[in-house]
Design brief:
By secondary structure, this protein is of the alpha/beta class. It contains eight helices and 14 strands. The strands form two sheets. Strands 3-4-2-1-5-6-7 form a seven-stranded mixed β-sheet, sandwiched between helices. Helix 1 links the parallel strand 1 and strand 2 (33-38). The protein is globular, with a radius of gyration of 20 Å.
Length: 336
């Protein structure tokens, strides 16, 4: 990889695409050129980067000639079609969709956890699911010293996880609800304002788990390189614009104390402890939004487990940043 690579953003006009550009600019990524691609309807649109206006071009099969790193966030179908073409043209693809995550030949990477996997890529590196990343960044420091045997997760997922259109739907439906107007949902399956509902991913009729919940279990095993870790998740949409929260309950191989967890997390990259019982101040989406750390609090022993092996905690992380764009840009930085 050359020192000042040509970087392409695929899906540049989407919510994650915009955050790709913000991360590249704020982190002073040493790129030579930035090329922006999106669907035909965005062809010719301009977007600002480092004080200049860049023109968005339509994504076509031949656009990758000369690209060194391609950051994809345009959906699994687009990734399956265009990522191999980018690799054939000489680019390394960092893909934010689920298209390649469980491919045995494709590294699934969270840089704070398994950066060594980047080196075995065959042209594509997969970005994990946002809920998986936000859970695993604070769980890894615990797992590496006291193996986590089981994780029970309940997620509180923001509109940003369903894209810019879902964020607009939340805003518009909330405005309509406050004004006493009807606002039938068009992006998500249920009314969003002042409502909570099961994640909109398809449900497997055999297991009763939806795709988001299954992703969390499978991706955790792959990222931790631990096929025996047991994960059960319940994923829920909440009326928050961005930043997911998760209630996590873990069972460790050896007994563990809350103070041990705090010590491990205090020294962990990408983690910030927000745990103030006296002021009842713990991780919140409004504090997690717009910054890259995963906030962790409510760190306490699970009193229902008298063996002392279980810990409960609550986390919040920006889904568009650490859950998506920031993680991908950190992978790209490792490529350099």
């Amino acid at each position: 990889m050359k020192a000042n690579p040509v970087v392409a953003v695929v899906g540049a006009t989407g919510a994650v695409g915009v955050e790709f550009m913000t991360c590249l600019e704020q982190r002073k990524f040493p790129l030579g050129e930035l090329w922006l691609f999106a669907s035909a309807r965005s062809d010719g649109k301009t977007m600002r980067f480092r004080g200049q206006l860049l023109t968005v071009r339509e994504l076509t099969p031949e656009v990758f000639k000369g690209v060194d790193i391609a950051l994809f966030s345009a959906g699994g179908g687009i990734s399956k079609k265009f990522a191999p073409l980018a690799v054939q043209a000489g680019a390394v693809v960092v893909d934010n969709s689920s298209a390649f995550r469980m491919d045995p030949q494709t590294p699934l990477v969270v840089p704070e956890i398994n950066p060594q996997e980047i080196g075995r890529h065959h042209g594509v590196i997969a970005n994990p699911n946002c809920s998986t990343i936000i859970a695993l960044v604070p769980l890894w420091p615990i797992h590496r010293v006291n193996r986590i045997r089981r994780v029970i997760a309940a997620t509180y997922q923001a509109a940003s996880g369903a894209g810019a259109a879902a964020m607009r739907e939340l805003q518009e439906s909330t405005r309509a609800a406050l004004e006493g107007r009807e606002h039938p949902p068009t992006v998500l399956p249920h009314p969003y304002a002042f409502n909570v509902f099961s994640h909109n991913a398809a449900v497997d009729p055999q297991t009763g788990y939806n795709e988001e919940e299954i992703k969390m279990a499978r991706e955790t095993r792959k990222i931790f390189n631990d096929p025996e870790i047991r994960v059960s998740a319940t994923c829920v949409r909440v009326p928050v614009l961005r930043a997911h929260c998760e209630a996590l309950n873990i069972v460790c191989h050896h007994p563990i104390e809350p103070d041990q967890v705090r010590q491990l997390l205090a020294a962990a990259p990408g983690v910030k402890i927000v745990d103030n019982p006296a002021k009842n101040y713990f991780p919140m989406p409004r504090d997690a939004s717009g910054q890259g750390d995963v906030l962790v609090g409510r760190i306490r022993r699970d009193l229902s487990d008298p063996s002392g092996h279980s810990i409960a905690l609550f986390v919040a992380g920006d889904q568009l940043l650490k859950g998506a764009a920031l993680n991908a840009v950190q992978i790209a930085e490792k490529l350099l």
